Amino acid sequence: MINTLETKRIKYITDTNVKTFMRKQDKKARRAKILLIVFKFIALTIILFFVINTILRPIAFNNKIEQQINQNKQTEQTNQNEQTDNKKQSGRNEKHSNEKRQQAAKEKYEKLRKKYEELKRKRPRNKEIKKLTDKVKKQMKHWKRKMDFMGENHSQKGKGF
Would you say residue 91 lies in a domain? Predict the structure, then answer.
């Protein structure tokens, strides 16, 4: 009986040891699987981060460049507007005439030109119409000269050394 009891006991011990060993192995295997999944997830996120970064970085860079180009265009437009508003620049021979005066002269010239064209078309022509057309023509020349006047040019002659 001793043999059978001992064998049963040994068998029981070995069975429990095997079961606990197997349980421990299963736990280790599960832990290993979980760790493997976690590492795969981390690696995948890192790879995705770099892939997305390499894809989106040029797009963001292009957007940034476009924004800078738009800002440069806007500043150029404002500079051009400022320059057209302020025609008078520094220097001796730059434009010295008043822009508003030129604009008013242009408007008067256009009105007189239309009037001159109407008078020229009128038939029959008599002395009164001819005098009126001459008067309008003189006024037209006057306002044309005012319109085209850019300002005085100072000191055009070379000074020499």
Answer: no
